[in-house]
Structure prediction request, 127 residues.
Amino acid sequence: MGIALILPIYTRVKVMQGICLDCGMSLSENTRYCPKCDNALDLQHDGSTITVDIAHDGERVREALRKMQSEIDLARKDVATYIRLVVGSGLIRDEVLLALRDLKFRGDVKDFDLEYTNAGAVLVRLK
Prediction:
């Protein structure tokens, strides 16, 4: 019989940190309320807009919708107020508008609308 040698494997774990925009306290990613000033962190924003193209890399409708959802999820954790989705003018745009209507109904996004000057982009208000 042989003896098995078990060696520990060390991995680096990247811990995301955020900052409370009101008091400046550093916080872990999973913190929902600032322990110092009691502000709701998911409601804080800096008024910025994130732009993401989900339709011009050869995506199919399903891939574009999956990409949209993951980008919205990431943006909601950030301090941006809006996310601008570049969707083109075809079937992907139509499906994105339907999906956004559902997200608005569920309360995951506050509002959305096609851009006034570019019908191939949708501006989504997150906070």
Q: What stands out?
A: The CA atoms of residues 47 and 81 lie 5 Å apart. The helical segments are 61-77, 91-106. The first helix runs from residue 61 to 77.
